[in-house]
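Researcher: Structure for this, please.
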Amino acid sequence: MTYANMKLNQYQQVNNQSAEYADPHRLIQMLMEGFITRTAEAKAAMERGDINAKNTAVKKACGILHGLLDSLDFDKGGELASNLASMYFYQEKTLLLGHSRNEPEKLDEVMRLMREVKAGWDGIRDQAASEPDQRQTPPPESVGSISVSG
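Model: Predicted structure, token format:
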């Protein structure tokens, strides 16, 4: 089981979907959704003064960010992976700052950033689904003819 799978199982499978059977793209979506959910929980706990719930939610949100960081492939992802890593580190720093100072607007900021990244990630799946399958067999006119005369 991958690190992302373990993190997802730890956070009680976002959207009631079993992470063990999700494809890699869906696992990342689930991590992003989990981060947004946990950060919203932290904000709600902050606003009602529930320190224990806030601490728990922030800890889980940070764990999810680490899962997202661990999922990055810097060899294949290049600059994009580096940019995402920088953003995840920024989100963690901002989340912890908002947590320690009880500033809900900091939590709003990191949720907004994650929603933007998630929208792009979701678009990758949508784009892939709308493109023709490159593994299809070529159309008949592009296949050479064979003469079977006797």
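Researcher: Any notable elements?
Model: The two ends are 59 Å apart (CA to CA). The chain has one domain: 3-129.
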